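Exam revision sheet. Question 4 asks you to relate a sequence to its structure. Input first:
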Amino acid sequence: MHKRILSALLVTILLMISSCSPEHSKIIVAEYGNEKITIGELERVYAKNVGGIEVAQKDSLAKIKSFLDLYVNFRMKLKDAQVRGFDNMTSLQTELADYKEKVGSSYLIEKKVIEPGIKELYNKRKYELRVSHLMIRPDTISDAEAKKKADELMARIIKGEKFEDLVAKYSSDSYSKSKGGDIYYITAGAVIPEFEDAAYNTPVGQVYPEAVKTHYGYHIIKVTEKRERIPSVRASHILIDFKSEYGKPDTAGALARAKDIKDKINKGEDFAKLAREYSKDPGTKEAGGDLGFFERRQMVKEFDDVVFNLKTGQVSEPVKSNFGYHIIKLTDTKPYPSFEDNREELKQLHKRTRYDIDYESYLKKLKSDFKYSVNNNTFLNIVKNCDTTKIGKEYFESKWRNTLKDSVIYSYNGAGVIVDSFFKKMEDFPDFNGKLVNESILTTGLNKISESLVINSEVKNLEKKDEQFSSLMDDYKNGIYIFKIQDDEIWSKIKIDSLKLVDFYNQNKSQYNWDDRAGFQEIFLTNDSLITACYSQLQSGVSFDTLAFEVTERPGYKEKFGKYELTDLKQNVLAEEAYKLEKVGDYTKPFKNSSGQVIIKLLAKEPARSKTFEEARAEVSSQFQEAESRRLENEYIDNLKNLYKPVLYSDKIEEAFKKN
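Answer key, structure tokens:
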């Protein structure tokens, strides 16, 4: 059903803005009954149908005229649906309401949570920040004490004490403590969201004005640099390790060797050739030192810091790391991708890092908009009295229910919801049924119910607020109306019986034919010597069935004794080889086929012929239904044309997509 609806929707979406003037858009290109179709409408619908205004402008006039003819038919069908009272048909309106509820929530989350979330992420990720922090961990003290200590240090920084001095004295991060708190470069989507938000909202050289809590502890954050981000670079290197020719560490000697190689590069010697000759990195040596593409932080810090500051083609001075001295050449960089090219990656990143936060933030806004609030007194009274009561029948039979059943537990959109109604709603969630009533389950229940309430309420208002969603709903409504029309006028009227099929078969008998076919048996082996041995056994009298069952290696054919039913020669080269044999029972010499060797035995040989009715029945039935559908469709369209007398103005259609 929905496939037919989707096909009908191809011509229903009316959201393409024309570049023509209002006067041009009002030109009438077709009429039917009292209805008119303007050139503006034609341009919007056609452009959307073919994939955009630019594609539409390149299409031929013949294509546009053909489309308009179909579109007029479509509009007449919708007019007929209106006359038949589809707008008041309960079953259709129920389906529309169900669709709106199901699609609306997904649409809402996509547009209000995901889309703005990934756009913000995209804009943030254009830049990378170098960040330092002072961290207070609550490992050995309470969370409250950790926060108090972080707030005190924040106050001292605000009063003028040097951030780096306080880091050296108080920070719990032993890795960055000796470096003034420096944790190197960060990129949005790659760090804890709370930390990320604070960092990206802090000007370079300044400290975020309050301590930020993460699951690691409390952070005082300072941004020391902001730069345009290079997503990834490609580089080559020559590694000179610290070992001397005697196997002992020799840092000075390694540096001297590295400088000597750098001099050779400066004089014009080939970097890749020198890498193959001198580099001690076995993984890249033979590739001329090529490391491929990599992102920030994938290399050791010393290497990373240099390579992301080189220009393409530039070669660094020797860079020391724990591995030795590196001479680095930047060979390529990847530019920051467009938003659309990066969309799917951003969605995955957003889902992993920010979706829950953004979704909760949106729910909080909706709850505020719909004035949702919990009555804490009622909530606490339930917790106090519930004892061992379980959600479901036990609640409604409990003694304490009578004292609280009419109390308001939450308010929503100006109306209070009583405890009885709340527990009834809880039963709608299978996860809650039979669970003990306690503070945790009540909180979870309130969250789930309020989430459903505010989302569904916003969806109800969505058509008024969002033109795109309103158009989507119109498209779906038109789709189910067209489906209903097609079902009433065409599909339900097609009656299939054997007499009609036989008659159709006799009228079109020339269409149903078999080409040359062969039934055959196969022995398939991947080993050349084994196939030769099998051929010798066949010649000495061993049964083909026996060998096919025992040795054939074609998956799924051992249990079939290698047998194939009658097969069209055009569809199978083995059938073609079998057909060349003179008589049933003959077999071929071994020959190569795909990844092995085969011997083919002819089981049956049938020249081309007409199909009998029974052989062609499935094709006949399918083609009969198609023919009947076309006939009934044409009859229905003719009836609509007789009723509405459509007129297409060819001279006006020629003005479509012409700029003034």
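Marking note for examiners. The two ends are 43 Å apart (CA to CA).
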